[in-house]
Design brief:
The structure is a homodimer. Chain A is built from 15 helices and 17 strands. Chain A is an alpha/beta fold and about 375 residues long. The radius of gyration of chain A is 20 Å and the shape is globular. At the A-B interface, helix 13 and helix 14 of A face helix 13 and helix 14 of B.
Chain lengths: ~375, ~375
């Protein structure tokens, strides 16, 4: 029996947007959903209580690459798995480590069964491939395991993108072999193919011949123009399996999320809300603001009027600017809380809009406001 | 009418320890009490909700020196005062700035009506004396204002200590002139006199001729041997006015607090629990532990068995060590939460022991365990 069941509760009759629900070993995830990134067994500066009570996150993402190097998969397993280790009892998705290894650039060497690289922490040589990634993610005990793939660089020639995609598809099959369907962990395959629509569609077809519980789209938001990313989602949308969750990896800004939902995407993750928070960049319905700007120095209003997060219900922009200028830890914390709350609340608003049958209006109005055209 | 009323609810019949209650404009403070230090309008890494709900702090300390330089007293006043600015609705004590200015060393010049110094932030020349300190603390709106004094250096000759103390006593009278008894803010005088008992007693007598709502002991824990500090508290204890709260400034370790309570001290503040937390040093009934030590790498137990703080009820030492090694912000936060909870809970245990008439037993048992002799 599979570890994931997925049902569609509502569709936008005019398009691809859908409102769904996943049942996973550690709980229910309503989609579309944003997954805060918990790189090193912590969503930076947040406790599990913040994530559940204030941010209302239903699932978070963990990073195989970081955890395998520190504190190590053996230790996490010994401590009862990632959920127990970090005291998070809701679902976790772990990535495969492929993206981070790819980001190492010259420090890594690709072989037929994986990638050899040096740890960024202590320089130790490490090998990571489909077999190793499945083993590590099993030790971590995540609800959703991602297939090990290569993130095709951007730009890439057709041949490079094709070779890379073909290797990722061989690896995808290997991953399923090493992690057969079971009741504890679901496995998602990842569409690659660079910026070439025909390669992307071939990749999607190759994955459909393997029994994955969900389909992810990787290799986007890697430097290409935003129109190209959206065009690729347009290409894929009609072909994504309707009965499985669709996850676009590492995307993106609030408007990217809305564009993704409009193209049938159910799941998102991105470091942007948390990383930008630490740099003082805060998200609102009217776009981003930078809290360090002098215009906020005496501003009594919160980041965003009407926002129900702890930060906005307690603190002025003037106070948040003071914390940022004084390099206080609380600055990172309050900013992160707001940004993650904003992202998760935006997904709740999207779910409601789809349920209530007014997705197109919600989408258009949001994009107009967010992009400053209203 | 005074801004502070103080009543003694119980005394240790065999000594000086007492359990009291202060009523201040922003609420009740049960004593003995530990006041977490909120230097720059934030107790580092903590929200007001952490401080009230988990740590159960009833009063915190704010730093005049830091706040006057950044964001500035005018801004804090404009934002409705320090309470509103930092969203803390319980009592606040502000220090006078004297200690921080003293710490600047060669960057400051003492004059008859205060100290001229350069800001550590931007080098601007600033003058701070009794008049200015009272004005700034009025703008901040703290419940308890501290007199502006000079912290006598250690070591100091008798003459140096005498001159310094005499100046502080002149400044103390000036402070009361600038901040007469009123219903919004109480004012505490500060005993100085270095390590000379007769100067300390002279200082205490000088203060008793001025109508202060509380008496503080400054210039301790500045490098002298711990026995000397305790001996000075022994000297002062029989002479402290029984009907006013007694506050020993900048002290100390958990066992220092117990020794202080035993000598009639009601109020404490110290950066130690919060600063040490960020360096991975954690307090328990059996002394300090350093979370980065390898022995904690696979330790499933919490920092301290039986501790009811969020950190101890959710996380293993192994996880806390991982966060520390990975330089995660959450490390500072969870460690700070534990240490401040430990300090405030220790004060609650002391209050209960005095109330229940078993202070000597509690004191002896605690000190034995804490100092590793049991």
């Amino acid at each position: 029996m599979s570890a994931l069941s997925f049902e569609i509760l509502a569709n936008d009759p005019a398009g691809f947007a859908r409102r769904g629900r996943m049942q996973l070993p550690h709980g229910i995830v309503d989609t579309p959903v944003f997954m805060p990134v918990g790189t090193q067994a912590t969503v930076k500066s947040m406790t599990p209580a913040d994530l559940t009570d204030d941010i209302q996150a239903s699932i978070i993402l963990g990073n195989t690459y970081h955890l395998m190097l520190r504190p190590g998969a053996d230790l996490v397993e010994k401590m009862g798995g990632l959920h127990k280790f970090m005291a998070w009892d809701r679902p976790i998705l772990t990535d495969s480590g492929g993206f981070q290894v790819w980001s190492l650039g010259e420090l890594r060497k690709i072989e037929e069964h994986g990638v050899r690289f040096r740890s960024h922490i202590d320089g130790a040589e490490v090998f990571l491939g489909p077999k190793e990634s499945m083993q590590i993610q099993r030790q971590l005990g995540s609800d959703i395991v991602m297939a090990f793939d290569e993130c095709t660089p951007y730009p890439a020639t057709f041949e490079e993108a094709n070779d890379s995609m073909q290797m990722s598809m061989r690896w995808a099959a290997e991953c399923r072999d090493h992690l057969p369907v079971n009741s504890n962990q679901a496995l998602f395959g990842i569409v690659q193919g660079g910026m070439y629509p025909e390669l992307r569609l071939q990749s999607l077809q190759a994955l459909s011949s393997i029994d994955f519980e969900g389909i992810a789209i990787g290799g986007l938001s890697v430097g290409e123009p935003k129109e190209d990313m959206i065009a690729m989602l347009d290409t894929l949308a009609p072909h994504l399996p309707a009965d499985k969750p669709h996850y676009v990896m590492g995307v993106g800004t609030p408007d990217d999320l809305i564009e993704g939902i409009d193209r049938g995407i159910d799941m998102f993750d991105c470091v942007m809300p948390s990383r930008n928070a630490r740099n003082g960049t805060l998200f609102t319905d009217h776009g981003k603001l930078n809290i360090k700007n002098l215009c906020h120095a005496e501003e009594e209003h919160p980041i965003m009027e009407g926002c129900t997060c702890y930060t906005c219900t307690h603190f002025s922009r003037a106070y948040l600017r003071h914390l940022y200028m004084a390099k206080e830890i609380l600055s990172s914390r309050l900013n992160t809380l707001h940004n993650l709350h904003y992202y998760c609340a935006l997904m709740q608003r999207a779910r409601t809009a789809i349920e209530e049958g007014n997705w197109p209006e919600f989408r258009d109005q949001f994009l107009q406001h967010y992009r400053g055209r209203a």
